[in-house]
Design goal:
Blueprint: H1 16-23, H2 32-35, E1 38-42, E2 46-51, E3 56-62
Antiparallel strand pairs: 1-2, 2-3
Bound molecules: zinc ion.
Length: 81
Amino acid sequence: MSFNLKNNIKDFLCCSKCQIEFESGMTDSESLQEYSKLDVGFTDIGLQVWCRRHEINVCHIDFEGNELETDFRCLLEYSNN
Ligand SMILES: [Zn+2]
């Protein structure tokens, strides 16, 4: 049941311009994930991923009016220290 609350990402989204900059060695970032500055949020039609660095669309998913099942819970790990 908590499976969906773990990191299930198989294919990371990235901005193509950020990818080009990172792969050409223009940055000091250790990974493309670190270099990326992505905003993720709901829009009138669905969900959009936006590159803050380049101010361009990375991905915009159109839900086509469907109300999709969404889980906003998060798993927190507690320690007894
Ligand atoms: Zn970018």
